[in-house]
Design brief:
Layout: H1 7-25, E1 33-36, H2 40-53, H3 57-66, H4 72-79, E2 84-87
Parallel strand pairs: 1-2
């Protein structure tokens, strides 16, 4: 498709690309939600780490969880748990 000197053509192209990107980004990755209660000090530590690395807290926490060593029997029990788990009180 050829876009001439009309600025509206460029606006339409940009809007089209934004819509395509939004459709791709709407994929639902999380299948379970977890609520974690942190102390003020733990939250500061997480926020500081995220600020230093430029990574979101969710990614940092996922990486830490993946690094845990859990035997397969324990892991299979956890996979059948409720879809929403609240940790702490």
């Amino acid at each position: 498709m050829h876009y001439g000197n009309n600025p509206n053509d460029l606006v339409i192209l940009i809007k089209s690309n934004i819509l395509k990107t939004k459709k791709i980004m709407k994929k639902k990755w999380a299948v379970k939600r977890l609520t974690v209660n942190l102390t003020t000090e733990e939250m500061k530590k997480l926020e500081c780490y995220c600020a230093l690395t430029g990574r979101p807290a969710t990614d940092v926490i996922r990486e830490l969880l993946r690094s845990l060593e859990v035997d397969n029997a324990e892991n299979s029990k956890k996979e059948t748990a409720d879809s929403t788990i609240t940790v702490g009180s």
